[in-house]
Design a protein that fits this description.
5 helices; 260 residues; alpha+beta; 4-stranded antiparallel sheet
Length: 260
């Protein structure tokens, strides 16, 4: 007799095993046809439920993957709740630069004195560096630029702010905004806390400006606040600090006041 088109005897033999032989073996061999039919229905229900469970598991896996991707994106995005991320060049621009050369090229004639004052407050038990006591080093590794992440940037942007303090060519010393405490205001100048141990991270030597003010004349014209350089009690030495580089939050553009 042969077989129908596009079929062979193996297919019907397979169906005979699934729908007849296995059902017969599952019955009690008495009034077998209703039992065989019920067995086949149950097998179909089991297969259908297994397919449903597979679909549910696939949907849950999609949701877990999406949640993991969102969490990774949130972790990569800069946040104001996270410490500032500072990136330095792989090698210092001026390695082991002498203190005298730093004072000359960076226009900080009292840098050695300020450095001694800073080291003297690192701890009461440490050796005091008076003007007659030599410092334990003759030079410092100096970086002329660094990059820092921008706080509050949404969408996982990798944009960075670049700050330069370079005496090369046309000297450029950028102004920056510095975090001086957990309760820092938008504008202000306060005493920076003295360190209690020898620094292990990159440090920055900075000179301060006075708190920003808005004069009546500025209010009537451009409505922009103004700042002036801050000086110590002698009136000639710029107010200074040596701070952790991570306390720099962003660069700040200043415009000269030509009306003065």
């Amino acid at each position: 007799m042969g077989t129908t088109n596009n079929f062979n005897t193996e297919m019907f033999e397979r169906l005979h095993i699934d729908f007849a032989k296995k059902g017969w073996r599952a019955s009690n061999k008495r009034d077998e046809f209703p039992q065989m039919t019920e067995w086949i229905l149950r097998q179909e229900n089991v297969v259908s439920f297994e397919r449903y469970l597979s679909w549910v598991e696939a949907e849950h896996e999609k949701k877990r993957s999406a949640a993991a991707a969102e969490a990774a994106a949130a972790a990569a995005a800069p946040s104001i709740d996270l410490p500032q991320v500072v990136s330095l060049p792989q090698h210092p621009t001026a390695p082991n630069k002498s203190l005298s050369l730093i004072e000359k090229q960076h226009s900080v004639p009292h840098f050695s004195t300020h450095l001694r004052d800073y080291l003297n407050v690192l701890g009461a038990r440490r050796r005091k560096f008076t003007p007659h006591v030599a410092l334990p080093f003759a030079g410092l590794d100096v970086y002329y630029s660094f990059k820092l992440s921008l706080e509050g940037v949404e969408g996982g942007s990798a944009e960075q702010d670049t700050v330069k303090a370079s005496p090369l060519g046309e000297p450029r010393f950028d102004t920056v905004i510095i975090l001086t405490g957990d309760e820092a205001e938008s504008f202000g100048l306060s005493a920076f806390p003295a360190p209690t141990s020898w620094p292990t991270t990159a440090m920055a030597y900075v000179q301060w400006f006075r708190p920003a003010t808005l004069s009546s004349r500025s209010r009537k014209t451009h409505n922009m606040v103004g700042v002036e350089r801050a000086y110590l009690a002698d009136g000639t030495t710029p107010a200074w600090s040596i701070i952790p580089l991570a306390n720099v939050r962003q660069s700040c553009m200043l415009f000269p006041n030509f009306l003065l």
